[in-house]
Write a structure and sequence with these properties.
Blueprint (H helix, E strand, L loop, with lengths): L4 H9 L3 H15 L14 H9 L4 E7 L4 H12 L3 H9 L3 E7 L1 H13 L3 E4 L1
Antiparallel strand pairs: 1-2, 1-3
Helix pairs in contact: 4-5
Length: 125
């Protein structure tokens, strides 16, 4: 017999503190979870969460599409990564692929601008 959500809430609401504590312990054990209180962006409001995102210090530059100028995109990829021709071509052929990882915001924007200048579609994450 399945019980609905309201019946479950009513049942939990009628428990004593000791019964509720035992229930929580059993729940954590059965489902392998913790009842830790979220601290940080998850517990913060929307404005605080946005501020946390703005504090990101490392970014990935991902090549989504090489557009119509594949050869020029390969040249730029070689320039910004120091990859050989074969490796750069494989990276471009296998889009979407990260071109640069864990770089500063300025470097990510510079790489993005260079790639977009030759017709590529790029995302900074």
């Amino acid at each position: 017999m399945a019980i609905n959500q309201q019946e479950l809430l009513d049942s939990i609401g009628n428990m004593t503190v000791l019964e509720l504590s035992e229930f929580v312990d059993a729940f954590k054990e059965k489902f392998n979870v913790t009842a830790a209180v979220a601290v940080g962006p998850a517990a913060a409001g929307p404005a605080e969460a946005e501020a946390e995102v703005e504090e990101q210090t490392e970014f990935d530059v991902v090549l989504d599409s090489f557009g119509a100028k594949k050869i020029q995109v390969i040249k730029v990829v070689r320039e910004v990564t120091s990859l050989g021709l074969k490796e750069a071509k494989a990276l471009v052929d296998g889009v979407p692929n990260p071109v640069k990882e864990a770089v500063s915001r300025d470097e990510a924007e510079q790489v993005k601008a260079k790639l977009e200048q030759v017709g590529a579609t790029v995302t900074v994450k």
